[in-house]
Amino acid sequence: MHKEAGSMLKYFYTIFILIYLYLPGSTSINCYTCSSTNGSNVHCEDPFNSAVSVFTEKCMVPKQGHIGTFPAHFCIKIVGTNVDTYAKMVIRACVMKNMDSQCGEFKYEDQTMSGCILTCDFDGCNRVSRLYQYQNSFLLFSLLFFIQNTVV
What we know:
Blueprint: H1 2-22, E1 31-32, E2 34-37, E3 55-56, E4 60-62, E5 69-71, E6 74-82, E7 88-95, E8 102-108, E9 111-120, H2 135-150
Antiparallel strand pairs: 1-3, 2-7, 4-5, 6-7, 6-9, 8-9
């Protein structure tokens, strides 16, 4: 009977962790927000200096076709060059939707850019040069390993 109780407890811990990590909540993410064109804001460029940069807590962003602002769930970092003017841009911001980290040509404010859009989903994640978009998965597997090895 004791083994069955331990197995049931593992099951409930696993379900709780999955719900906590993967269901979207109503709370906002915290992101660094800045922009730089041709090095105009050295604190936004790489290497990034988070000590003197704007950290926006509980990011709220507009939603197309709606009035007001809504909780953001992702941070982004855009590094690109305008294909017409060759202006280099670095943008760190909050967004509502996952933009799937990708590189190539894309549109930004009606301008064609060549570069990368990097998306991540944990507080302050757009501060680093390379975004760690798999942090939640690592946390999940670590917790599951811990639960399996500690609960009898």
